[in-house]
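User: Predict the full complex structure for these chains.
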Amino acid sequence: MTLFHFGNCFALAYFPYFITYKCSGLSEYNAFWRCVQAGATYLFVQLCKMLFLATFFPTWEGGAGVYDFVGEFMKATVDLADLLGLHLVMSRNAGKGEYKIMVAAMGWATAELVMSRCIPLWVGARGIEFDWKYIQMSFDSNISLVHYIAMAAVVWMFTRYDLPKSFRLPVTVLLGLCVYKAFLMECLDCTAKAILTFYCFNTFM
Amino acid sequence: MFEEASEVFDNMFKSSFPLTFIVFIPAVLILVSPLPAEAAHEFTVYRMQQYDLQGQPYGTRNAILNTEARTVEAEVLSRRCVIMRLVDFSYERYQKALRQSAGAVVIILPKNMSTMPQDIVQQFMELEPEMLATETIVPVYFALEDDELLSIYTQTLTSSSSQGSSSAAEVLIHTATANGFQMVTSGAQSKAVSDWSITSLEGRLAGTGGEDLPTIVLVAHYDSFGVAPWLSYGADSNGSGVSMLLELARLFSRLYTYKRTHAGYNLLFFVSGGGKFNYQGTKRWLEDNLDHTDSSLLQDNVAFVLCLDTLGNGDSLHLHVSKPPKEGTPQYALLKELETVVSSQYPEVKFSMVHKKINLADDTLAWEHERFGIRRLPAFTLSHLNSHREAQRSSIMDVRPHVDLRKLSRNTKLIAEALARVIYNLTEKGAPGDLQIFTEQMVQEEQLSSVVDWLTAQPRAAQLVDKDSSVVSTLEYHLGRYLKDVRRHYVKADKRDPEFVFYDQLKQTMNAYRVKPAIFDLLLAVCIAAYLGVIYLAIQHFGVLYSLVRRITAPKTKQH
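Assistant: Here is the predicted structure of the two-chain assembly.
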């Protein structure tokens, strides 16, 4: 029943996108082609990011345990290109705010789903061996959808000239969180481990 | 949405032909691509013997398997792979698995056989011939234990033993959490190996003093046998015999280099192959030498043929004969010399002659000397075993610890002394019984030890040793250092009526994949459907959720 399992994972990953597309009213605006354009922009932005990272960030040779904070920070900064890409997509689409956000986010998230999840699922979930990570991957894509919608909304808010002054700071903070999310998680992880080992060391000494 | 999608695809088709190719060819390729192999655990398995001897098939007939794993305690065993550990192995359980037409049987052997208690080893040794005696279509494999395999076994054990007795709820929880294993072998179905040639080696030391000297032939077969060819190391049977033969060759070649000790006997040494398969090497060698050659040492004056078989342990020596030797013959002389040497120099050894008539109606011959006896050459076999039916002659448990080096070197010295007394006619010349011809240092224990170590380092089943094998070439080199005229002799099965047929696919790689039962997939589908339903409702009524969130955060803004 391994093809069935692949079907399960695919349904879990893809159906929420389908439901979101249908129910958010995008279908009434003939937005399919625009979503595909947003997806193409995603591909282009990812390609640029990869080239940039490969050119300017050589492989870091160092100890396995030490985390290169500065290097990883610089790498995470490149993710700003994501925000720029979203802004580009939204600025090219004429229409209401919600329409722009939804089109950009849907296209972006669908492109990410197809590019980074379809092939591992096809290759892995179809095999005889069972692993929980495929269900995890599919569920991850749902969370990514919500994340990209939020990100697009925050980018749109940032570019509005009529945004109340009091909202500027929270919006900027949220934008920062979006970009540096993975980096911050790693930092927290490292510091937590360091504190834990220090604590254990002290307890046993 | 589908209308728009179809519109897009239409445009794509109409606009450019190459574009459709770029889109479709990878899709088709991915669809027909074979599934990759990602195994939970990959390990080597060794198949049980499969061979035909004189038209009679033995052993397992099948090699491929792709079945779920179970242990013997499970209720349903048919078309499942039954895993057993050696400690739990018993013939009834094995028969139970075969009766229920199991898909396969895998027996897990400990890495180090010496950690097993003796009674289990003995019991398994006795069961091996019974397992081989009947032909079975169920593939039987042996695997060496490691940690992962052990964990797979324990997991299968818990899931198999809990199958019968549990309520529906327990079964449901069980399916979600348990791990099943699918055992798959990579490899094809087994088929007969054509043109397999069994190699034997001969070498000689010529005696001095004219033509027509009597010949003494010393024979030992170098191949081993066990329930699995790749696991049969044959330490005592017959690694001990071969090492003793090499040592005797060395000793007598040293004696024959000096004119003073050059005796009037030709010594012919023969290391035969296919010994465990009814002595095929010896049979063909005899045919070639006696029927097809004009002159051969075997045709003229043969004093006797001494076959060495399993002499690495034990405190008894048995001289197996098919006809008790008559007085005045060289065989009788050897018998007497052996008795003399044992009684005067090695009183702890119990020596006896065992008389067993050749029974041509039997499937296989008992000892190697019977081949010579059939051709009317006087022959006997020396062994510490009393009967040819002893289980340790053909067991995979016969590994290096089974050979006691001191006893092997004692037996070598004993036989060397007795042979020397016959060759140099010492008893007639009045030499006393306790005269030691070979002093302690002459029989080199290190040499014996290293030969036995080398022989037991690799499996020497007849199906695995072909003419390019390192075993044969090393033995050839070794014999060539001491003997002259070292020659190879090949045996190939007859095309129309083969005496022996070997099959391949004796060593396979088995993969154990973690699988979930089918119920699990259905359960997962139901859960995912429920989740999607919830998502759909949430999105449909998103407005409700939004106003709820506003109401919760509203009190803060109302204060402004």
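Helices of chain A lie at 2-23, 32-56, 69-77, 80-92, 97-125, 133-159, 165-179, 181-204.
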